[in-house]
């Protein structure tokens, strides 16, 4: 499937946002099986008249993430969903980049959680790597690349970041992924302790969505 996708879409390039068509309210495929991401995307797009349905709900396979960047992997997943459904597809590839670890785990953030996903183990690994580094720098950022692909192959990527500090031990159970160890700049609670609405207003995903809104929904 992956080779077919690359072959059929190899002529497509990332378009400049100024050349993008409007994203028309209606059904929008979220090319992910991650329930936490789907929930956040539904909250962010519902006010604009979109019915977000996930790849999991549509029983779509998730292609292997073989690219070397957040934007590359986001496009890969959105292309697969648009090709399979004939609907506009949205995909987010995101992760945690820790300054003292040279940006790791980065695009491998989910893989650090293993199979089946266990993000507590991933958070333990980050903490162990930080201690092993000997660095006192606990700064980090969440990065999100949000790709949208239309059935005709038109595509665009919007990126958002939120900077903050890592804490240990993990705090809160309201988020997902690395949320319980991340405190955004200017905040005292981790993303794992925040109510979803508050987190969604400032997250890396929300910032990427805001750029998409400005380009495609304004």
UniProtKB/TrEMBL annotation:
Cofactor: binding comment: Binds 1 Mg(2+) ion per subunit.
UniProt GO molecular function: dITP diphosphatase activity; ITP diphosphatase activity; metal ion binding; nucleotide binding; ribonucleoside triphosphate phosphatase activity; XTP diphosphatase activity
Pfam families with a match to the protein in the record: Ham1p_like
Residues annotated for substrate binding in this entry: 32-37, 94, 176-179, 199, 204-205
CDD domains, alphabetized: HAM1
A GO cellular-component term linked to this record: cytosol
Gene Ontology biological process terms, A to Z: nucleotide metabolic process; purine nucleoside triphosphate catabolic process
Catalytic reaction list: XTP + H2O = XMP + diphosphate + H(+); ITP + H2O = IMP + diphosphate + H(+); dITP + H2O = dIMP + diphosphate + H(+)
Cofactor needs: Mg(2+)
PANTHER family (alphabetical): INOSINE TRIPHOSPHATE PYROPHOSPHATASE, INOSINE TRIPHOSPHATE PYROPHOSPHATASE/HAM1 PROTEIN
Assembly with partners or alone: Homodimer.
Function as written in the Swiss-Prot or TrEMBL entry: Pyrophosphatase that catalyzes the hydrolysis of nucleoside triphosphates to their monophosphate derivatives, with a high preference for the non-canonical purine nucleotides XTP (xanthosine triphosphate), dITP (deoxyinosine triphosphate) and ITP. Seems to function as a house-cleaning enzyme that removes non-canonical purine nucleotides from the nucleotide pool, thus preventing their incorporation into DNA/RNA and avoiding chromosomal lesions.
Name used for this protein in its record: dITP/XTP pyrophosphatase
Origin species: Hyphomonas neptunium (strain ATCC 15444)
Gene: rdgB
């Amino acid at each position: 499937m992956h080779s077919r996708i690359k072959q059929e879409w190899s002529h497509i390039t990332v378009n400049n946002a100024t050349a993008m068509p409007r994203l028309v309210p209606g059904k929008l495929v979220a090319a992910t099986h991650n329930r936490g991401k789907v929930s956040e995307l539904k909250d962010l797009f519902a006010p604009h008249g979109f019915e977000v349905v996930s790849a999991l709900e549509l029983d779509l396979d998730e292609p292997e993430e073989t690219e070397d960047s957040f934007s590359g992997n986001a496009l890969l997943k959105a292309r697969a969903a648009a090709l399979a459904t004939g609907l506009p597809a949205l995909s987010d590839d995101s992760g945690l980049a820790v300054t003292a670890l040279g940006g790791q785990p980065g695009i491998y953030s989910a893989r650090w959680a293993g199979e089946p996903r266990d993000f507590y183990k991933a958070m333990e690994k980050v903490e162990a790597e930080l201690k092993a580094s000997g660095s006192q720098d606990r700064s980090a950022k969440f990065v999100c690349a949000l790709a949208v692909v239309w059935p005709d192959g038109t595509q665009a990527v919007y990126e958002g970041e939120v900077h903050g500090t890592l804490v240990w031990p993990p705090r809160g159970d309201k988020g997902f992924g690395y949320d319980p160890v991340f405190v955004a700049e200017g905040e005292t609670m981790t993303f794992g302790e925040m109510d979803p609405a508050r987190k969604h207003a400032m997250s890396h995903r929300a910032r990427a969505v805001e750029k998409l809104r400005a380009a495609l929904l304004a």
